[in-house]
Write a structure and sequence with these properties.
The complex is a heterodimer of chains A (441) and B (408). Chain A is elongated and about 115 Å long. By secondary structure, chain A is α+β, with helices and mostly antiparallel strands. The longest helix of chain A has 36 residues. Chain A has 2 domains: 107 residues, Sandwich (Immunoglobulin-like); 242 residues, MetI-like (MetI-like fold), CATH 1.10.3720.10. Chain A is built from 15 helices and 10 strands. Chain A is 52% helix and 16% strand. Chain B is an all-alpha fold. Chain B has 2 domains: 153 residues, no CATH class; 207 residues, MetI-like fold. In chain B, helix 13 runs antiparallel to helix 14 and helix 15 packs across helix 19. The radius of gyration of chain B is 29 Å and the shape is flat. Chain B starts with a helix and ends in a 5-residue tail after the last helix. The chains are: A alpha+beta (441), B mainly alpha (408). The interface between A and B is large, with 97 and 105 residues.
Chain lengths: 441, 408
């Protein structure tokens, strides 16, 4: 050992010995450049549409911005010919009506520019305006909210003017002005977050989100595992059933969500008609509209969260095909020798499942749990379409919509979105730390 | 011995109840007459039949004869217990339907019992055989359960879309097709959707948006995936891993900033806006799926191409892409499905009915003024194309779904 290490420096001393190239050679550099070039479009669009908005969301969450603020304050203008000139030489007035579009925001350096129509000889202009050749420009300075103004340019008309239809519209008047855009200025507020956390409902929303995520994920996984056991052995019609089982996942969410609504409708739904006519329940059950159902079991009254459970059932129904597919693929790739050996040793079918199949499936199950957990947590469409977040089914993602768009407070919506993102990052780190490494997806 | 009897009884009771319940509910939905299945009586009939089956195996070898006897045992027990009204309907009401349902129910009971108790004879039973029966029963229930929960909503969707408003309100249980109203009457909702609600336009817009998304996604992700899988560059390992992390970002977090920025840029209520957002959300997963496939292709082929004087672009176009057609097909289908089914951005961005996608158009139908059968007809219109495409290319799609990662 020491022998070799003693020899090494000596070997390097010989100068004319060929050495492997160090660093990045020109060919390697060319390859890297090509790779970056090929990745640049993807990188740019992801930056613009995913990473950019992610950062922008943090920005908006500390801004007092509502839906109405998306239209920046501006001066609205309307131009008219007044005085009703009929013959050449009649006096007429060009009237500009100006108005600040907002109630409370000032607009600075407001300038009006317009070209006087042909055939209109100007006799007088308002004080704030100047006329050079036929170019009218008016400096209106800073205007407050609710501001209105009329500017009148007096003059006489000639025949050409009268012959033209709507002569004032040939050159449209242009108004310019600077106003604060609430999205780009540096006013910050923590009010959005205060509003989110002070709300009593927030904690119940958080709780509902976790129930939905955990039971929805678990339900889909268990159903997928069960379905995979059914289709593992080959039989006639297996391909057909496999295709059928994938239907809920492949169909548009909008179609299946509305179908469930129709199916479970309290008045005209098939399920409720069945349940009442067959004598299972006395009256129709409003599966998606009723917050809780009192069940008495052995004298104990349990409040069963009905709407939330139905929504969770939908989640499990819609996404079991995905788990089913992955678990089935894993099972088909398992080695059958070990089952033969177990059979020889007298292991019963349940023992084989518990001690041989399940341990082999653990990897894919935990990866699926991880992915489905995060995706269920992110899910918005399903609950929004089924209940709109009412009847105790509002999750964080639905709350983003509720705050941002239903209540028109974009800032508060963005604040909830920040909460969503933070929880998500926490999960992802947790999962990535503890998840098994061997089964990569 | 006792265990054997108990297991046979339990198995038979389960199948008696299940077969009766399923046929009773099916009869109700097909005819519209409320047929309350006598589940309890059927359970007893099934249990006795199962007992007969395990007992008869011992002595006689003629299996078909014992099956026939079992069938009649169940029939007689059921008829006696329900006083000849297995569906709580007098026999004069729809005698043919009732008879068919009864035969089907008893046949299913017989078949299921025989299949579950195959090879089981009355006598001491090993734990192994007990579990075999248990698993057979569980699997059978699983088949019935999954088939019903998947098929029923789709059946209801199609049947509701073919009904008239009055028929729906009069009897929600009647999901039969009323042929009496003729073809035009049957498809009235569809005709109205296409003539009065512009569903032709929505269909066209959805198709254009989905196909354009597929093309854009492939244009972006093919070079990217090739670079990640074949070329060496600093940051490659990190990049291929972070691609999936991008996919974990929830759409709802992006929707507020995108809404804000697109409103200011005038891109919000436009298909251009959608065609920027859709590819951006599908490119990462397409890239991930494709790079997995590219990695599996033999690099020697490409090296040979390079030696023979092809440029990199030439290698990709002439060697890599032709070899990866299956992967391209599955990625395309998958991206098409995502774009076609997408709801959130279409809902938030589009206000103008001229450029509604199908998802957006169907949401607009969900009001109290529009009858339910129109809503369901819209759902069928949105579902059929994607299901047809899916069934056509199922093999590719399943490979693609399991090979790479998938969005939920």
């Amino acid at each position: 050992m020491s022998d070799i290490s003693a020899k090494l420096p000596a070997a390097q001393d010989e100068d004319d010995r060929p050495r492997p190239p160090k660093g990045i050679g020109p060919m390697q550099r060319r390859e890297s450049r090509l790779a970056y070039l090929m990745l640049a479009p993807t990188f740019l669009i992801v930056l613009a549409i995913v990473l950019g908005p992610l950062l922008a969301n943090f920005w908006i969450s500390v801004k007092p911005v509502g839906l109405a603020d998306l239209r920046p304050p501006s001066v609205l203008i309307n131009e008219r010919v007044r005085g009703g000139p009929e013959n050449p030489g009649d006096a007429a007035t060009l009237e500009y009506r100006l108005r600040n579009s907002t109630q409370d925001k000032e607009i600075r350096a407001v300038m009006l520019e317009d070209r006087i129509p042909d055939g209109f000889s100007v006799t007088s202009v308002p004080e704030v305006c100047t006329l050079t050749d036929d170019l009218l420009s008016c400096d209106l300075g800073t205007v407050p909210g609710k501001w209105r103004e009329r500017l009148k340019v007096e003059g006489t008309v000639d025949q050409a003017f009268l012959d033209t239809e709507d002569p004032e519209d040939i050159h449209a008047a242009v108004v310019s002005g600077d106003a604060d855009n609430i999205l780009t200025n540096f006013d910050f507020t923590l009010e959005n977050f205060a509003r989110v956390f002070d709300n009593d409902e927030f904690w119940s929303v958080l709780r509902v989100t976790f129930y939905y995520t955990i039971f929805g994920t678990g339900g889909a996984l268990v159903m997928g595992l069960f379905a995979a056991q059914l289709l593992h052995t080959s039989f006639k019609g297996r391909g057909f059933l496999r295709g059928l089982f994938l239907f809920p996942y492949v169909s548009p969410v909008i179609a299946v969500a509305f179908t469930w609504l129709v199916l479970f409708d309290p008045f005209s739904g098939t399920v409720n008609a069945l349940v009442t006519k067959m004598g299972v329940a006395d009256q129709a059950i409003n599966f998606f509209g009723q917050r809780s159902l009192d069940l008495s079991l052995f004298g104990l009254t349990i409040e069963f969260p009905l709407a939330l459970s139905t929504v969770i059932a939908f989640e499990a129904w819609r996404y079991f095909p995905l788990s089913f597919l992955f678990i089935l693929a894993r099972m088909q790739s398992m080695n059958t020798d070990v089952y033969e050996a177990a059979e020889m040793d007298g292991a019963t079918p349940l023992q084989q499942f518990w001690y041989i199949s399940l341990p082999q499936l653990m990897g894919i199950l935990s990866v699926l749990f991880l992915l489905r957990f995060i995706w269920t947590f992110n899910k918005f469409d399903d609950i929004f379409l089924l209940t709109g977040g009412n009847a105790g089914t509002r999750t964080l993602t639905v709350d983003v919509y509720e705050q941002g768009f239903a209540l028109s407070n974009l800032g508060a919506g963005a604040a909830v979105a920040v909460v969503v993102f933070v929880v998500l990052v926490a999960f992802a780190t947790l999962f990535l730390t503890f998840s098994p490494k061997e089964e990569g997806l | 011995m006792l265990a054997c009897i108990l297991i046979a009884l339990a198995c038979g009771a389960v199948w008696g109840a299940v077969s009766m319940l399923v046929t009773g509910v099916t009869l109700t939905l097909v005819t519209g007459q409320v047929a309350v299945p006598a589940v309890g009586a059927a359970a007893i009939a099934g249990a006795l039949q199962a007992l007969w089956l395990v007992w008869s195996v011992k002595g006689s070898s003629a299996r078909s004869q014992s099956s026939l006897t079992g069938f009649f045992i169940a029939f007689i027990v059921l008829m006696v217990l329900t006083m000849a009204m297995p569906f709580s309907l007098p026999l004069s009401v729809m005698p043919v339907w009732q008879a068919v349902a009864l035969v089907l129910s008893l046949g299913a009971m017989m078949y299921a019992n025989a299949a579950c108790l195959r090879g089981i004879a009355l006598g001491a039973m090993r734990r192994y055989d007990q579990e075999v029966v248990l698993i057979r029963v569980l699997k059978g229930i699983g088949f019935v359960f999954f088939t019903i929960i998947v098929a029923l909503p789709f059946y209801v969707m199609v049947m509701t879309s073919l009904k008239s408003q009055q028929a729906l309100l009069a009897n929600p249980l009647d999901l039969s097709i009323d042929i009496g109203q003729g073809i035009a009457g049957l498809f009235r909702s569809y005709v109205e959707l296409f003539t009065q609600y512009d569903f032709g336009t929505y269909l066209l817009v959805s198709t254009v948006v989905s196909v354009a998304t597929v093309i854009l996604t492939l244009l972006f992700s093919v070079p990217g995936a090739y670079a990640v899988s074949r070329l060496r560059f600093p940051g490659r390992a990190m990049l291929s891993r972070s691609v999936l992390l991008i996919y974990m970002v929830p759409a709802i977090v992006l929707v507020i900033p995108l809404y804000t920025v697109f409103s200011q840029l005038g891109l919000r209520n436009s298909l251009t806006g959608l065609l920027i957002v859709y590819p951006a959300t599908t490119i990462p997963v397409a890239l991930y799926m494709l790079q997995g496939y590219f990695r599996g292709l033999p690099a020697e082929l490409e090296e040979a191409g390079l030696m023979d004087g092809l440029s990199r672009i030439g290698v990709i176009l002439k060697i890599t892409l032709p070899l990866s057609l299956p992967a391209l097909a599955s990625v395309s289908l998958y991206v098409f499905m995502i774009a076609w089914n997408e709801f959130l951005f279409a809902f938030m961005f589009l206000d103008d009915p001229d450029i509604f996608t199908l998802s957006r158009g169907i949401v607009a139908l969900n009001s109290s003024e529009v009858p339910r059968q129109h809503l369901m007809a819209g759902a069928v219109i949105a579902t059929v194309p994607v299901l047809v495409i899916f069934l056509w290319f199922e093999r590719f799609l399943v490979q693609g779904l399991t090979a790479g990662s998938v969005k939920g």
